[in-house]
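We were asked to recover a plausible sequence for a given structure. The inputs and outputs are reproduced exactly as logged, with field labels preserved.

PROBLEM: sequence recovery
POSITIONS: 278
GIVEN STRUCTURE:
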């Protein structure tokens, strides 16, 4: 099948012939009307750009900062009443370590259950291993990366609710949150053909969230970006109705949740107005 001659800019929707050349090499056409618009979302797009990353979609390894953050949060439980498990507990479940009969040591502040010392030494090795390309089956690698990044996202939310403080979240963590909210993780065993197209379009929404561009400029693009993601999913629903509609419902929920928090006067509006590195 020949590549389309033109398409909508992922940022503003303008028809253009300009596409990401690296992603075109990977077999997926992603259009940007100008270098400025590609640069606006590059801090997220670069993680998933080009062969081996763009299509099929592959989650990036942990960055050094993410490794440090994960190790620091290994024994924490962000929301004890909702998800009473430490990051270490969650990782060990993924790799099928037996948990029955394991001794536990004293818990740190805000922890529900702590890891035994011998396994605590092993879990940091798992985290370090995920800082590079691994030979793990893709499902295990994706599940472990998602587990770590969702835990960091939960801790970010918990810290803000408890103390009113926050640290900037990573692009990969923010994308993992969107992937979770839109229920894409349900289909990792048998990814839909439209997976990469959806996630690349949705990544523009996340990129605008995390951008250091003025808030007013970003707000200009949000509605159109969301509408184009939904349009893409509705087109996918013609041949894959059950999965595409479920993901559309999840994406709408993500957008509504975000807007209620970040709209003027919302809980996190002040954070949205600050630069990412403030």
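RECOVERED SEQUENCE:
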């Amino acid at each position: 099948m020949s590549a389309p001659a033109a398409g909508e800019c992922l940022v503003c929707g303008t028809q253009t012939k300009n596409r990401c050349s690296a992603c075109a090499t990977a077999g997926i056409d992603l259009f940007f009307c100008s270098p400025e618009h590609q640069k606006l979302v590059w801090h997220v797009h670069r993680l998933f750009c080009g062969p081996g990353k763009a299509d099929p979609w592959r989650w990036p390894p942990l960055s050094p900062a993410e490794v440090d953050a994960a190790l620091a949060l290994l024994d924490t439980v962000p929301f004890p009443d909702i998800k009473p498990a430490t990051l270490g507990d969650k990782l060990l479940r993924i790799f099928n370590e037996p948990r029955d009969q394991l001794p536990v040591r004293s818990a740190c502040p805000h922890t529900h259950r702590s890891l035994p010392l011998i396994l605590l030494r092993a879990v940091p090795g798992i985290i370090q291993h995920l800082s590079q390309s691994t030979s793990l089956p893709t499902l295990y690698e994706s599940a472990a990366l998602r587990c770590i990044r969702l835990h960091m996202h939960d801790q970010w939310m918990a810290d803000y609710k408890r103390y009113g403080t926050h640290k900037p979240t990573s692009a990969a963590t923010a994308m993992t949150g969107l992937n979770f909210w839109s229920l894409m993780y349900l289909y990792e065993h048998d990814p839909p053909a439209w997976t990469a197209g959806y996630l690349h379009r949705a990544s523009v929404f996340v990129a605008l969230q995390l951008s250091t561009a003025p808030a007013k400029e970003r707000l200009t693009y949000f509605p159109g970006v969301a509408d184009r993601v939904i349009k893409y999913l509705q087109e996918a629903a013609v041949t894959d109705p059950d999965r595409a509609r479920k993901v559309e419902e999840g994406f709408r929920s993500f957008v509504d949740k975000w807007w209620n928090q970040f709209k003027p006067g919302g809980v996190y509006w002040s954070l949205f107005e600050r630069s990412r590195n403030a």
